[in-house]
Amino acid sequence: MADVILMPRLSDTMTEGVIAEWHKKIGDTVKKGDVLAEIETDKATMELESYKDGILLHIGVNKGGKLQVNDLLAIIGTKGEDISALISGKGQTSSSNAKEADKKQTSSGNKQQIVAAPKTETAAMDLSKIEEVVLMPRLSDTMTEGVIAAWHKKVGDIVKKGEVLAEIETDKATMELESYKNGKLLYIGAKNGEKIEVNNLLCIIGEEGKVDINAIVKAANSGTHASQPSQPSQSVQESKQEELNTHLQSAGYQQTLAENGRLKASPLAKKLAKEKGIDLNRLHGSGDGGRIIKADVDNFKTTGAIAQEFGVKPSAVPQFVATDKEGFTDIPNSQMRGVIGKRLSESKFSAPHFYLTMEINMDNAISTRTQLNEVSPVKISFNDMVVKAVALALRQHPAVNASWLGDKIRRYHHIHIGIAVAIEDGLIVPVVRFADHKTLPQIASESKELSGRARAKKLQPNEFTGNTFTISNLGMMDIDEFTAIINPPDSCIMAVGKIKEVVVKKAEGLGVSNFMKITLSCDHRSVDGATAAAFLQTFKKYLENPVMMLL
Question: Which pLDDT score, from 0 to 100, does residue 276 have?
Fold first, then answer.
């Protein structure tokens, strides 16, 4: 039986999509995963993948044409199948289709991919068609759910177009969500700290008395739009504290209470604890019967690292104390950590990596940097010089500035350099766009700003997507050399080690020079070894003769 594909809703503000390109024509054989078309939305151009095998029997509009969300986009079935009834049903909507397509979204170069979802039974109430409803938008290419970091408005507040409604934590950053209309905030779908899946009910904004809130919420909860709070019975902080306490107790921490509920502690221990502002309930008593003694107070130190993993204030968390009991602490994965694990596993096990290591003399780079920083409006780092050298080398070796797309290799005409930045939850890659056209001070200024906003989780989606090549630098952490896993959709990633002094033979005898090792990880499907080696030779030429980067 033929399957109908409807135009999915790809953003919270999208009402229609434009067919930028059809990759299949009527009568073509389509396989699961094949790109059917490129769809231009109000925010991006995305690739639509087929979810099944079959023959493309019908397309809803030709290239350049527009379709409203949930309009008939295409029909896939078997050759000769009668689809007249399906075509006559054009215009029917299905709120679950767009959501199912969103869930299967993945990144591919500067465009995102959407796996087309089949048509399902029309829902009684399509929330995406209700003007007052705000659904959880997809704020990154890998986002499947968002956490409410903070509401800037409360129920009953007047909201104006452009005002910040809430801060949404995704798998990559914390972003401000602005209202796209005026009205009163009548309902919110989750409290601070709770999760909402993409396309689920986030809030309702409208005119009081003219919106059937109960009907909307009931429709949301009866279908796939229902928001599932992560901790419905208590506040997020209380739940995290309770979870933390459980883990601490399993690791040897415990509250020391006597049978009658009174704290068992020596008078001196109580006095010292009061002076130091230490909560005795958090200490493990080493005296008789678990009694807290002076040594327990003296040995107590707060450990912010443990608390930080659970989002609890660290002021009352004890340092690890060795015990004779087995124990462990399970730390739930953050959204970012989960996505890092998934994407890098896919990269490592699907892309055949090979590695090239090169040693570069940095004497001239050190001298040039010192001179530049005497006149530069912003301090230039060695990493900024690496970014510039990579960008210029990519101009001469476009085969390295590419992505593997299965049935084709995409070589980019632009050069966007991703710079890996370590943050609390893992790793994020801000992107310096058109790096080959920027001066060293411009790269330095932009890199510094992006890194700071990355650590504060304030990056916008266009600031951490679209990379065509990535650099990971651990030299500042005293690492000599390492290999990095390719960051999709790139074909290569460069791992940069520290600069170190090496005794070398010179004309006047022995002397000291500064060397830096870099390792290039390559996807052998799209980049050959000789091509990558030639790229590194050009990169080395720029770094060893940095004046060439200034021409």
Answer: 75
336-550 CATH fold = Chloramphenicol Acetyltransferase (3.30.559)
CATH class of 236-316: few secondary structures
Contact by Cβ (8 Å): 114, 198: no
pLDDT value of residue 303? 41
CATH architecture of the domain covering 3-115: Beta Barrel (2.40)
> What is the reported pLDDT for 335?
67
127-222 matches 3-115 in CATH topology: yes
Assessment of whether the complete model's pTM goes beyond 0.70: no
At 317 the pLDDT is 47
What per-residue string of b and e applies to 524-545 under the rule 16 or more CB within 10 Å gives b?
A: eebbeeebbebbbebbbebbee
Please indicate whether residue 397 is annotated as part of the active site. Answer: no
Residue 528 known to be catalytic: yes
Instruction: State the pLDDT at residue 125.
Output: 64
H-helix or E-strand spanning residue 16: strand 16-22
Q: How far apart are CA 23 and CA 171, in angstroms?
A: 31
pLDDT tens for 313-340 read 444 444 556 667 787 777 777 767 777 7
Q: ∠ CA(53), CA(58), CA(60), 5° rounding?
A: 120
- Helices and strands (H and E) in the chain: how many: 12, 28
The whole-angstrom separation of Cα 175 and Cα 184 is 22
Strand-pair category, 492-506 with 469-473: parallel
Q: Return the closest-CA partner of residue 68 out of 48, 93, 89, 103.
A: 93
Query: Domain limits of the chain?
Result: 3-115, 127-222, 236-316, 336-550
* Token output for 326: 């087995």
Catalytic: which of 152, 247, 414, 524? 524
307: its two tokens: 């608390």
Report residues of the chain scoring pLDDT below 50.
Answer: 90-123, 224-261, 302-318
At 53, list the tokens.
């095998």
Closest CA to 504 of 495, 514, 490: 514
Listed residue (94, 106, 88) closest to 49, CA to CA: 106
Rg (CA), the chain: 29
Dihedral, CA of residue 524, residue 527, residue 530 and residue 532, to nearest 10:
-110
